Amino acid sequence: MTLLHYSTIEPHDGLAAIRFTAPLRVSHLRIVPNGVQPFAQAPDIIAETTPESFFADIYFNAQLLPGQAGDSKEKEKRAPNALVPSKIAYFGTHVDFAVDMGSEYATRLLIIHGNFDKLSLAIYGEVVSAALEDTSPLTTNGVFSLDARPLPPSLDVANHSDPTTLAKQLLETLTDPPPLHLILQLVFCLKPDMDDWDKPNFPYLFFDLTTPVEKLDDLAQIEPARPVDINVSEEVLKTFATAVAEAVGDKVEPAEPLAKILCNASSQNSELVQQLLERIDLEMILTSQKMNGFIVTDLMNAANNVHVAQKLKLSDAFLDLLPEIIESDDPSFDSDARAAAREILQKVQGWTYLQDALSGETVDAAGCGTFLKNVCQEDLSLGIWLSSLLSDPALLAAILPRENDAPQTPPLLWVEPQQTLTTSDLACFVRGIVAVSSVLAVLSWVDSLGLDDARQHILSIVHLWQGVDSYSQIVNNLLLMRQYTRRLEWFIVDNDPPRKSGYIGEQVLYALAQDPRSVLRPQFMDVIINLEPSLTYIPEHERMSLRKIALVAEDGLPAAVEELTYTSDRPLSLRRLRTIRVSLAIVEDELGKKEGEEALLKALWQESSQGLMDSLVGIFSAAVEDLATQLRTESNLDTPLVENLTHVGHEILSVICRLVPVFPMNAFCLRALVQSIIQTTVITSSMEKKERKLANTAKKAYDLSIQLITQLSDPTLVVEPHSRAVMVILRTLFTHIPNEEQDPVYHNLQILHLVDHVLPAITTDLTTRASDDELTTWAVEILPTILPELYAFFRGQTPEVKLRLCRTLIEIDVEGVTGVGEWIVLEEFKAVLTLLDALKTSPFDDSYISVALYSLAQAFAFIEGIVDPDRTTFQWFMNRDGQPELSGPLADCLEGMVEGHYDDEHLIRIVKILTTSFESLDGRLQFVTALARLHISSSEELTAEIVDLLRRVPKDALVESTLSSELGKFLLRLSKSTDKLSRTKAKTLFELLEWFADSVEATTVLGGLSPSFMGTNLVGLLYDLGEDRIDRLRKKLHVDEDASMESFDLTTLPADLRIPLNALTGLFGSPTVVSSEDFLAPPSTPKAGHRTPEELGVIISPPNALLRSFTSTGLTKTYTSNEFRELRLSPTARQNTSRLPSTHVDVGITVSA
Questions:
Q1: I want to staple 1008 with a disulfide (CB 3.0 to 4.6 A). Which of 56, 390, 437, 1045 is the partner?
Q2: Run of H or E residues at 682
Q3: Rounded CA gap, 895 and 877, in Å?
Q4: Are 1111 and 1118 within 8 A, CB to CB?
């Protein structure tokens, strides 16, 4: 950006203005603090902004630039001196304010109104006239992205040897600060009385353990406002615990006061809790009297302490009571009490998960993550857990990093709870919770004391953590506790005159509100709704957007259903996306409840909206299309929009996965869903390349897509009569066409991946293999209905993919009920024969021939895979009893390759494989295999094996003409070879000819061979065979060098395809055949019908007299002399025929011979 203007403004009655000499497009405003030198190259310029903080209203005179779209309409609506307002806040430091004027507007006037004395202001942007004169084409260097930098070691608190180091350092900046453990107790657990804050020795106001314990009720009534001195002696703790135990024994129903004492003591020194638990028979007390909601709630809080949780775990009788409380209808247990009973079980089990993981045993990531997230929901539970962890030497040692451990980032445990973690990973995550919680405790302390500078400093650290994925999950969850949502509200509301802490507080709140689940928390929801206009960081339109989603969250399920079924404008706006995300979160939370599905149906009924699934699929499709459009842009991405589009896709898929078993889906809706899923899988790679920050969310959406399409592929799921869901899915997958912007190869790979998840599992593992009944359903009811789409998709795949699909089809129909596998192999054989016939009969151009030859090579690669002994399809193919129809088409394909003079590496291997199983082949396939073996042989490969194969062919399977032709071509190739014929090969060749002579009835003439080859080269080497054998061969076989012979050269099929780039266009149409007949279309006779022409049709209206002329013959007429003029003079000829007068004149034309 360019500096356009700098000046120090002095207002008159709070009003100042700057007029520019040319139209400007402003991008930033910068207020420079008093006494600061704003420009290094101008040391004499010193800023004079006063006072230290104030609000100012900014007004821009907006002028629509000429030539912009909608220019005339905008001018009609907007006055020439229209002012666009904005509000800025200054709080004593450098402040930059971004201004989004767009490309359509400029300004020449800036008006500032506020309670300030002087304002040093720098304005950045560009001069519009200069921008308009620049007609050079716009060039981009790709998407600009900032490289992520690691956190400074001082802020990477999860890798500190002591996770509370940063919190302690922040405390050291204060005057006479209390110890951190005391602040943790006072902030999270022991809320001091208002009077205690004014006492001189606060916060060192401790509970006196030496006070005589006369009545347990009196002790239990003491509010948890006084901590226990950490330096108290062990003897005092034992004495106090003994007194409490004796008081318990004297009380008839001690459970309620005892639970209160345990709750209060759990946040204290761990030694105090252990002493109490050692002297009190907790199981006997809790199971000997009736429980109530107060007891359960206090025990739930106390269970955040590891020692209390371990004690409760050993009490089977007490744990057996909890499920009864959860299911009880007793009015003494409200919903909160039943939820507390459920949480006791979770906390007891959660401590077990955590201790096992930290001790090096199995790490249950999901169990540990749920437990830790539950702990961080409330102040009291977090405070008790922190005190228990930090005061227990064994637990503290377990989470500290080892001496040689490399630095690591906390895993995204609350984002991906199902991931695999090591003990070191979990310890790092726990250290992160301890460190961030400690810093937030210091924030609460300095805020209670009104220390704004310290508050600003800590808020800056918190906001920085919000931008780091590994820490944002922790800090955002902790900020949603009631205490911190209230404090954020106080930071923002009490911000006049503006303070930097209030500005950063708005940034923290805005970042927190980006997660829709944050808005569902009632206390945070209230904070957003209560936000007033004129904020320092959050613009007014963003405040209204946040208020909108908070109101939806407040109204609950009915509002969420209304928003999800509302028809959205396209493209989806950022505000609309946020509303959709909050609505989805509400629906998903409702579905997690016991009667959530019924509640959702009722809400749909109340809103008169029955098409929830259709609406969700429509939103998902729109989001995927908008995301693809954004990723195709050449310029910088709209990151907030892309981020929300990605999250919407992931969250909608999550909700649909839960709705599929309950809400029906019609075929149209399912087809649209599958098409969008295909698009989702394709754009995942683009997300990884352009938006690495969102790659994780895109990957989760990809995984959910696979999960959903697998779920919908259940053969029992019906979308409409006589149509199963899996049929619709496969048809959509097989016929889907990529967009012009998409890579077709990558698109096809994603389709294949989805198809693999739709088709039934064919594995040797019985736990994952589809059942026999399911395979029968697939073979009999599903696959036969989609054969055209299946084969069209099959034809476009590579040989390896074809083999995989073919093997799956064979395994599905392993009993051969419908023969789907056999059918698709036969279709491939037919395609090969069609290709061979086309190459033989049609004179295509070179490019088409290249493609055809390559296709032929690929087809034989597939055939090779079918007969490969190392594949499961080999035995299936060789089983003649089950597949008798396959031998004939295969023989036709091999014979076509022989007749077409083609050579191919796959053909060679196919022939060699078939020769190893020669006896199991039928007669014709044996003959063609032996013939192909001869066809692919050279002089070096002339062995007795060829003769042996031919001898083993049944006589009735031999075709003399074909054999004679191929033998002649083989001998011709042999005669033209430069290799010298050895005596051994000559003997083999003689045996071959001798067998051929015995196999044919008539004398055979071999054309193209010279007598010298048969005499000198062959017979001359076989002097020891005897004259009788040689003479008998000469009588049956004759050679004629002058006889015509087909070309003996072989065409080798290409291993890859290479054609000129300019030939690609023609290949997408019909093949080009070099023939003059295709240039002239045959004439066609008009169809008989009514003579009256249609509107705008062909007009046919010849004169009636002309048609009745005695010389007329059909529709032709030969005129003589003035006959044409005479005919036109008749009354009938002068009728209006709706045509222009004829300009034909034939008078005075003399035709000479």
A1: 1045
A2: helix 667-690
A3: 19
A4: yes
CA–CA distance, 308 with 319 (Å, rounded to integer): 13
Peptide bond before 1086: cis, by omega within 30 degrees of 0?
no
* φ and ψ of 60, to 5 deg: -105, 135
74-132 pLDDT, tens per residue?
444 444 555 556 778 887 787 788 787 767 778 888 888 888 889 899 998 888 865 44
Q: Which of 814-828, 853-867, 911-925, 954-968 has the lowest mean pLDDT?
A: 954-968
- Tokens describing residue 570: 């396209």
| Residue 588 vs residues 437, 581, 609, 655: alpha-carbon distances, Å | 29, 10, 18, 6
| pLDDT of res. 167 | 95
Mean pLDDT of the chain: 80
Is 930 strand, coil or helix? helix
Q: Does residue 1097 carry a pLDDT above 70?
A: no
Cα 864 to Cα 874: distance, rounded to the nearest angstrom: 10
Give percent of the chain with pLDDT exceeding 70: 78
Angle at alpha carbon of residue 195, lines to 189 and 200, rounded to 5°: 100
In degrees rounded to 5, what are phi and psi of residue 231?
A: -95, 10
Bridge partners of 903?
Answer: 1052
Phi first, then psi: give them for residue 15, nearest 5 degrees: -130, 135
pLDDT on residue 549: 94
pLDDT of residue 1027: 65
Most confident of 38-42, 471-475, 1137-1141, 1148-1152: 471-475
* Preceding peptide of 571 cis, ω within 30°: yes
Taking the C-alpha atoms of residue 65 and residue 394, their distance in angstroms, rounded to an integer, is 71
For residues 1066-1073, average pLDDT: 56
Residue 160 CA to residue 430 CA, distance in Å, equals 12
Task: Tell me which residue has tokens 């356009």.
Answer: 4
Which three-class secondary structure state does DSSP give residue 121?
strand
Give pLDDT tens digits for 58-67. 888 877 777 5
| 230 CB-contact burial (10 Å; exposed 0-12 / middle 13-18 / buried 19+) | middle
Average pLDDT over residues 697-703: 81
Rounded to the nearest 5 percent, the helix, strand and coil shares of the chain are 55, 10, 35
Tell me the C-alpha distance between 302 and 263, whole Å.
4
- H/E stretch holding 493 reads helix 482-493
Run of H or E residues at 620: helix 612-631
Q: Give residue 1118's region: left, alpha or beta (phi > 0; psi -120 to 50).
A: beta
Q: Contact at 8 Å (CB) between 619 and 652?
A: yes
pLDDT higher than 80, residue 43 = yes
Kindly report the number of other CB atoms within 10 A of residue 170's CB atom: 22
Residue partners of 797: CB distance under 8 A and separation at least 6: 748, 752, 805
Helix boundaries (H) for 799-941: 799-812, 820-841, 846-866, 873-878, 887-899, 905-916, 923-935
Say whether pLDDT at 133 is over 50: no
For residue 568, report the phi and psi dihedrals to the nearest 5 degrees.
-90, 145
Q: How far apart are CA 856 and CA 836, in angstroms?
A: 8
Q: Following CA atoms 650, 653, 655, 658 in sequence, which dihedral angle do they give, to the nearest 10 degrees? A: -130
User: What is the distance between the alpha carbons of residues 303 and 476, in angstroms, rounded to a whole number?
Assistant: 24
Please give the single-letter amino acid code of residue 258: L
Alpha-carbon distances, residue 279 vs 239, 240, 255, 379 (angstroms): 11, 11, 15, 29
Q: Report yes or no on whether pTM surpasses 0.70.
A: yes
Tell the residue number behind the tokens 């002790």, with chain if given.
Answer: 219
Across residues 318-324, what is the average pLDDT?
85
Can you say whether the dihedral through the CA atoms of 263, 265, 268, 273 is positive or negative?
A: negative
Say if CB 213 and CB 279 are below 8 A apart: no
**Could you report the per-residue pLDDT of 604-647, keeping only the tens digit for each?**
887 776 678 889 999 999 999 988 888 877 566 677 888 888 88
Q: Give the separation between CA 708 and CA 203, rounded to whole angstroms.
A: 56
